[in-house]
Design a protein that fits this description.
Largest sheet: 6 strands, antiparallel
Strand order of the largest sheet: 2-1-3-6-4-5
Structural class: alpha+beta
Radius of gyration: 31 Å
Number of helices: 8
Length: 307
């Protein structure tokens, strides 16, 4: 399954190309994205702990008020005017509550240690001798760019990939740029469009020849077709999420895909096309919006460098 870090890397490649600067490597992006995710998770946990402490402090305050009221009541009940009508008072039930001071102090110590460690080691991966990497994973992959309208409607902005297994770092870098700048259906993506963009990275697997053109499931499989028509050879593919996003049935998706490939016959004749072959495959996409990438870059740029 594609990692979110792969989508972050595609944005890093695109933005660096538009800004004419050197991009981080895939390994660096994966490392920094992991630290960023851990950091934001720690902040969320800290906020939950602060809320818990605040709630416990309020509970302690309420309990103090109850104890104070009982003490005053006890004092009144012992006055001579009340002795003629004595009343037994149940003692306040003691409850053990966490010490707010202790919890807060411990949390502060942890936060201090975490921040100190983060600052001292943030860029250490670039200054220490790294172990030799194992053989890089290879996958067929596609990189998709979408743009959102002010009303939130997504439109395709570019999508190119390969069915050949390629090393992830090279494949993501190459197709992030190719799909952004060289998809012949669209003009190249510009710097001004970045705020509206999102990207999908899909790693493909489990390729299986179909015994028939409809031997695949909407929402599970992508399909790759090839066929001959009027002496010409055609081919095209739809990724697993396309039919679902469009609300198509299997037949509707197949006809649309044949049209995409260049077939111009009548709709009811699609089954008559000779030599129609279909291969199904699976793939899960990692999706990221530009705003999420920007938050990560802002976090990263706020860290001290050169340590």
């Amino acid at each position: 399954m594609a990692s979110t870090a792969y989508a972050v890397y595609c944005f890093e490649i695109l933005v660096a190309s538009l800004e004419k600067r050197q991009a981080l490597t895939l390994n660096q992006v994966e490392t920094l994205w992991s630290r960023y995710s851990n950091s934001t998770q720690a902040e969320d946990d800290g906020e939950e702990m602060d809320n818990y402490d605040a709630e416990m402090t309020e509970d302690e305050h309420d309990e103090d008020e109850v104890k104070s009221e009982l003490t005053e009541h006890d004092a009144i009940s012992l006055q001579p005017s009340n002795i003629s009508n004595p009343r037994m008072l149940s003692p306040a039930t003691g409850s053990s509550t966490p010490s707010t001071l202790s919890t807060t102090s411990s949390q502060a110590a942890l936060d201090s240690t975490s921040k100190s460690s983060s600052k001292s080691s943030f860029f250490s991966f670039s200054h220490k001798q790294q172990p030799a990497p194992s053989k890089e994973e290879e996958y067929p992959l596609f990189v998709t760019w979408n743009t959102a309208s002010p009303r939130g409607h997504n439109s395709l902005r570019g999508c190119i990939g390969t069915f050949n297994a390629v090393p992830l770092s090279d494949g993501l870098k190459s197709y992030a740029k190719t799909s952004a700048f060289e998809d012949s259906r669209f003009s190249p993506i510009s710097l001004s469009e970045l705020p509206t963009l999102s990207t999908n990275v899909t790693l493909l697997m489990n390729f299986t020849p179909c015994s028939g053109p409809l031997e695949w499931n909407v929402g599970t499989h992508g399909i790759k077709i090839s066929f001959s028509y009027h002496g010409r050879h055609y081919g095209a593919t739809y990724l697993p999420d396309v039919a679902v996003a469009q609300g198509w049935t299997q037949e509707e998706a197949m006809i649309s895909l044949m049209r995409k490939a260049g077939w111009s016959g009548r709709l009811n004749d699609w089954k008559k096309v000779g030599d129609l072959k279909c291969i199904r495959y699976e793939g899960k996409a990692a999706t990221l919006k530009y705003s999420q990438y920007r938050e990560w870059r802002t976090w990263m740029d706020s860290k001290p460098q050169g340590q």
